[in-house]
Design goal:
Blueprint lengths: L11 H10 L28 E3 L7 E6 L4 E2 L14 E2 L2 H21 L1 H4 L2 E2 L2 E4 L9 H14 E2 L4 E6 L11 H9 L3 E9 L3 H7 L7 H13 L3 E8 L6 H13 L4 E6 L14 H5 L4 H17 L2 E3 L4 E4 L11 H5 L5 E6 L4 E5 L6 E5 L4 H10 L6 E5 L1 H14 L3 E2 H8 L3 H14 L3 E3 L3 E4 L1 H5 L1 H19 L13 E3 H9 L2
Parallel strand pairs: 2-6, 2-14, 3-4, 5-7, 6-8, 8-9, 9-10, 10-11
Antiparallel strand pairs: 1-21, 11-13, 12-13, 15-16, 16-17, 18-20, 19-20
Helix pairs in contact: 1-17, 2-4, 2-12, 4-5, 8-10, 13-17
Length: 498
């Protein structure tokens, strides 16, 4: 029987229809649960001396580094951004980066046998505007990471705004190449649009014009980097012709990867644009927005790009090659990878050897609170979520949905049950709405379902959310698996006797 079958609850079909009428967000890319749903780590199971126990089953490792939370557009959050961020400049980044280095060193001190020189599959520098980081501090951070982890086979990505890739003495791209010794380096820039009037509305004119975008791609390729750019579509009043023109101009740059994101904007989201009634009135409805998505997707496919996730497209020549973009691809394989994060808002995740339980943690978001937590010398994270088996199923399913492929045999191997037995009503509802297809081997979103993936994820997560709610807040964290936590006081005693 499906977990959703109940006479007093809204059916998955009805819930899906309601969700499809609402905003379609990019929550799948953040993972389950969302940051806003992460409980405070106040349970007795999470003492200040507790930290995550890594390397439970020799899983591969992803490293995320958020050097600081600062960005500096002329319009707060570019008008639409809901990511955690603070206003700041390059000088403000220095003390925060020092705290990040301290966090890395503290983590290595506690996990030296588990993490020191452990091979890393992919390392990602993200955060507010990662390439706003002051060069000397960035070099120190790179040196610290190179000493802590084995990066020779890693892909390393630096994210940021276009103009800052060209600035600095030395440039951050040169520092990456010099200090990390990684197999593959990438740059990922937020273009958003080529329309300079719209860039001005976003407060991003100082971040670069179309000429800047081209110069960044040329520099990246000269240095041997692969290059990626993010584009927005479904902006207020934007026609499909304008969206297609943006995409063609991006393709003409010679980018290796393109991230395609529809604008998430609705009343109450908490951004400056969300308070502008004119902008809200000029947004397309969801059906038109989904049609626009499908037209842009077809344009990319016709130009030889391959879709690798809900939002990511890369040139076809990268298929099955090590130069392809791997960080996101690996992050959608929750049963195969551990994740360790450093910096403000950084996330970490570990699971038991049988993948039946897991824990995700989150660091403080503000620079000040984060730095104070590092200075205290105990665990840094202040939020934690314990995944029970049902939560693990939802995590795995939603990660695979973002990767466009749910392998039924893999699900059966991990959980010793059938995905349709566990989530049959939810998947049937999505199929009847034209959002998913089911074969004997796999469940996949349709092109229309890719646009409404947020709604699919919501109904898949509903049973687990209800189960957590019924447990009550006081219970959260009480059943944290002991094998996933390490008491730093015990570690200290161990090292005293070594």
């Amino acid at each position: 029987m499906s977990t959703s079958q109940s006479t007093h609850r809204v059916s998955p079909a009805a819930e899906l229809a309601r969700r499809m009428r609402g905003p379609q967000r990019h929550r799948l890319l953040h993972g389950y649960p969302l940051a806003s749903a992460m409980p405070e780590a106040t349970s007795p199971a999470f003492e200040p001396e507790h930290t995550l126990a890594f390397d439970q089953s020799k899983r591969q490792l992803l490293v995320g580094v958020l050097p600081h939370p600062f960005c500096n557009p002329a319009v707060t959050g570019c008008g639409f951004c809901t990511f955690p961020h603070q206003p700041g400049n390059s000088a403000k980044t220095q003390p925060v980066v020092k705290s990040v280095i301290s966090e890395i060193n503290q983590t290595l001190d506690r996990h030296i046998l588990d993490l020191l020189l452990r091979p890393v599959t992919a390392l990602y520098f993200g955060g507010g505007t990662a390439n706003l980081t002051e060069p000397t501090a960035f070099r120190d951070l790179c040196k610290c990471l190179a000493e802590a982890f084995e990066l020779k086979d890693a892909e390393v990505t630096l994210e940021g705004v276009p103009a800052y890739f060209l600035r600095g003495s030395p440039r951050l791209l040169d520092i990456m190449r010099q200090e990390l010794g990684a197999r593959q380096c990438r740059l990922s820039m937020g273009i958003q649009t080529f329309n300079e009037t719209r860039l001005k509305e976003m407060g991003r004119v100082a971040f670069g014009t179309p000429d800047t975008f081209r110069e960044v791609v040329e520099l990246g390729h000269k240095l041997g980097f692969t290059t990626s750019a993010d584009l927005l579509f479904n902006l207020p009043g934007q026609t499909l012709d304008e969206m297609q023109d943006d995409l063609r101009r991006a393709l003409d740059l010679g980018l290796d990867h393109i991230g395609l994101y529809h604008l998430v904007l609705f009343r109450g989201v908490g951004t400056p644009w969300a308070e502008d009634e004119t902008m809200l009135a000029e947004l397309p409805n969801n059906e038109q927005a989904a049609d626009n998505w499908q037209a842009l997707r077809e344009l990319l496919l016709a130009r030889g790009f391959v879709q690798t996730s809900l939002t990511n497209f890369e040139q076809g020549r990268y298929q099955n090659r090590p130069e392809r973009y791997q960080y996101e691809e690996c992050s959608f394989q929750a049963s195969e990878y551990e994740v360790i994060g450093f910096g403000p808002s950084a996330l970490s995740y570990v699971s038991t050897k049988d993948f039946a339980f897991g824990i995700k943690t989150m660091n403080p978001a503000s620079a000040e609170e984060y730095s104070e937590a590092v200075k205290a010398g105990k665990r840094v994270w202040n939020k934690a979520f314990v995944y029970r088996t049902l939560d693990q199923k939802v995590l795995w399913l939603t990660r695979r949905l973002a990767a466009l492929d749910i392998d039924c045999a893999k699900y059966r191997m991990l959980f010793d049950t059938d995905v349709l037995a566990d989530f049959g009503d939810e998947i049937t509802a999505a199929c009847e709405a034209g959002l998913m297809t089911v074969t004997r081997d796999a469940i996949r979103p349709t092109p229309r379902g890719m646009f409404f993936a947020d709604s699919i994820a919501a109904i898949l997560a509903s049973p687990a959310i209800r189960a957590t709610r019924e447990l009550g807040h006081a219970t959260i964290g009480q059943d944290a698996p002991k094998e996933l936590l390490r008491d730093l006081r015990e570690n200290a005693n161990i090292f005293l006797h070594m």
